[in-house]
Design a protein that fits this description.
The complex is a heterodimer of chains A (61) and B (249). Chain A is mostly helical. Chain A contains two helices and no strands. Chain B contains nine helices and no strands. The chains are: A mainly alpha (61), B mainly alpha (249).
Chain lengths: 61, 249
């Protein structure tokens, strides 16, 4: 196992490549998730404003 | 024939696209996860060390797929941008914009893994040769596209201007691909081409192929996901968005 992780002395290069790739994909998905949540809140606010009054004159949300 | 045309345009309408993308994205995401596990298993457990490079060659299994993806996605982005520019297809504009961040990420990962592969293999992280420089330009094209889109307030003008940038940048893609043939470079030539058998062991080629499919599935899932958000943003006052929000509330 130790031998496997050592990658014949190339561990920083090999795991640095795959690690950053994994990190980048996880970050991308987390950012999209956050954006989705923010979008849902914004749309809910817009829907509420539409119900309460004239949607056309509501402030831009 | 006429019916097929109608079908095609039906899927290009924002609400239909939104629903279809929402149904498809999780499947692509799940497939990506499975393929990544299989690809890494083949690449790290089944594939033997390289007789020349030892274990550092395994970087290929992330480097090459990300390089291919960064180029494929750029061309795809330019095609969607062109469709948006010429026929004013709203969903095509949205797709072009949604592809850019993921393409930029792949271009970065290609450069990053390339640098980490270059150090043990060539003795340097970076050289200003044709292949590396043109790939760096690809990353800047993605970033430029995104910056231009963000800088112009008017949505239509932003889409038009960035579409033209995307199309002009397409010329860089064949330059990247053929750079190893056209110029003297440290970078090796293509080991895998459409016209000839791959010059590597079958098990290594299998790992490369599976990792490439995994990246494709991941890219499709994430792009569809982002395209849905872009559509909601653009169409937030449209009846179909309110309808769908009403269902959730």
């Amino acid at each position: 196992m130790i031998e496997f992780l050592a990658m014949g002395g190339h561990a920083p290069y090999v795991w640095g490549s795959f690690g950053v790739a994994l990190l980048a994909m996880v970050v991308e998905m987390v950012l999209l998730r956050q954006r989705r949540k923010a979008m849902n809140r914004r749309l809910a606010r817009l829907a509420r404003l539409n119900r309460e009054g004239d949607g056309a004159t509501s402030p831009d949300v | 024939m006429a019916e097929q045309r109608v079908q095609w345009f039906k899927f290009a309408s924002p609400p239909n696209f939104y629903d279809l993308a929402g149904r498809l994205a999780p499947w692509f995401g799940g497939l990506a996860a499975i393929l990544f596990v299989v690809g890494l298993y083949i690449g790290f457990i089944l594939a033997p060390p390289d007789y020349q490079q030892g274990n550092s060659y395994r970087i290929m299994f992330i480097h090459v797929p990300t390089a291919w993806m960064s180029m494929f996605l750029y061309v795809l982005m330019a095609v969607y941008a062109a469709i948006g520019l010429i026929w004013r297809v709203k969903t095509a504009e949205v797709m072009a914009k949604a592809i850019a961040p993921t393409g930029a990420m792949f271009a970065f990962l290609c450069l990053w893994s390339g640098a980490l592969w270059g150090k043990p293999t060539w003795g340097t992280y970076w050289v200003w040769d044709a292949r590396l420089t043109s790939q760096l330009i690809l990353l800047f094209l993605y970033l430029g596209y995104m910056a231009l889109h963000a800088a112009i307030e008017d949505r239509q003008r932003a889409a038009n201007a960035s579409a033209i940038l995307a199309l002009a940048g397409v010329v860089n893609v064949p330059i990247i691909y053929f750079s190893v043939v056209w110029w003297n470079t440290l970078h090796q030539g293509a080991s895998v081409t459409v016209t000839s058998a791959p010059t590597m062991e079958t098990v290594m080629f299998a790992a490369l192929l599976v990792m490439t499919f995994a990246c494709w599935m991941y890219a499709i899932a994430v792009v569809l996901w982002r395209a849905r958000l872009e559509l909601l943003e653009r169409e937030r006052r449209a009846a179909w968005v309110l309808e769908r929000m009403g269902e959730k509330a």
